[in-house]
Sequence to fold (186 residues):
Amino acid sequence: MNTIISLSHLDIEKAREVTAEFTNFLRMSFNFQNTSAISTFRKELSIVRSFLSIEKTRYGNRLKVIFDIDQDIDFNLPPLMIQPLVENAIQHGIGRKRGGGWIKLIAKKETDHQYVVKVEDNGAGMTPEKQKEILSPGFDRVGLRNINQRLKYFCGSELEIQSTPDVGTAVSMVIHNHESADISVS
Fold:
C-alpha cells in the first residue's frame, strides 16, 4: 500500500497498474468461495506474478526476477505454498543485500507424478544453524514451518534449504501428484 501511495504522487498510471496487480493478488490469495485444500500451480503462479509486480515497483532495479518454468506445466498443490517462499527470498535475501539482487522461480516436471518447485536468490544467505532453526517447532516465525508441515501432510515430502552466507539461498519442494490427487479446482 505504501508503494501505491507513493506512486500516486509521482506516476498515476503506474499507481493504477500496481493497484490492479494488488487487487489480483488479494483476489487470488483470499478466494473464500473456493474452500478446497487444493490449488493449481497456474493459480499460484498468478499470485506470485502479481506479488512480484508490486515488489518490482518497490525495489526497482534492485530486484531482478527470473522464471525457469516448464512450458504448459500445471499440477495440484496446497494453496499459498510458493508466494511465501518468494516473499522470504525478497525480504530476507535481496532486501538485506546492498545493491539488491535476483530471485529465480523454477518449476519442473520430474516424472508423470512428481514436480519440483524451487525459489533461489543471490541474497544475504544464512548459516547452517539458521537453516535448521527456521524449520524447528520452537521457531517463532511460522511461515516456512507451516509450508513444510503442509508439504509433509499433502505431498509426503519436506522443504529442502540450501544456503551460504553472502551467496544466497535455494528453497525447493517436491510435489507428488497421483491420479487420485487430481481434484478439479473451481
The beta strands are 39-40, 63-69, 76-77, 101-111, 114-121, 160-164, 168-176. The helical segments are 2-10, 12-29, 41-59, 83-94, 128-134, 143-155. Residues 15 and 21 are 10 Å apart (CA to CA).
